[in-house]
Amino acid sequence: MSKITHFETMSSKINSKSCKAARALADISQGELSKRVGVSRKTISDFERDSRNTQPRIIRDIEEYFKKIGFEFEDCEDHTSIKLNKNSSKPPILTP
């Protein structure tokens, strides 16, 4: 069984590398992201390192969090592009 590093529905495009990049751009730690998504820090770490099968629900929840704070993900030929929504100058910190 291959690792799930990319979950696609009509709008899900995040993968392990784009998760790590978006987290860095948002200036939040793995621990902070884990709290916002409702999973352990280890789950975020494992997803970003491609070291385990990550449940599609968790991948969707991670992407939804980033969308809420103004990020957009777009598939390109060989990578995923991360864009900050035009209406956002810096992602706000959301409280649970």
What are the defining features of this structure?
96 residues, two-stranded antiparallel sheet, 43% helix, 434 Repressor (Amino-terminal Domain), disordered N terminus, mainly alpha
Give the number of DSSP strands.
2
CATH architecture: Orthogonal Bundle
Largest sheet: 2 strands, antiparallel
CATH class: Mainly Alpha
Strand order across the largest sheet: 1-2
Write the layout of secondary structure elements.
Blueprint: H1 16-26, H2 30-37, H3 41-49, H4 56-68, E1 71-75, E2 80-84
Antiparallel strand pairs: 1-2
Helix pairs in contact: 2-3
Give a description of the structure:
This protein has 96 residues and is mainly alpha-helical. The chain has a single domain (16-84), classed as lambda repressor-like DNA-binding domains (434 Repressor (Amino-terminal Domain), Orthogonal Bundle). Helices cover 43% and strands 10% of the residues. The protein has four helices and two strands. It has helices at residues 16-26, 30-37, 41-49, 56-68; strands spanning 71-75, 80-84. Strands 1-2 form a two-stranded antiparallel ribbon. The longest helix is centred in the middle third of the chain and has 13 residues, at 56-68.
Question: Quick gist of this model?
Answer:
With 96 residues, this protein is mainly alpha-helical. It has four helices and two strands. The longest helix has 13 residues.
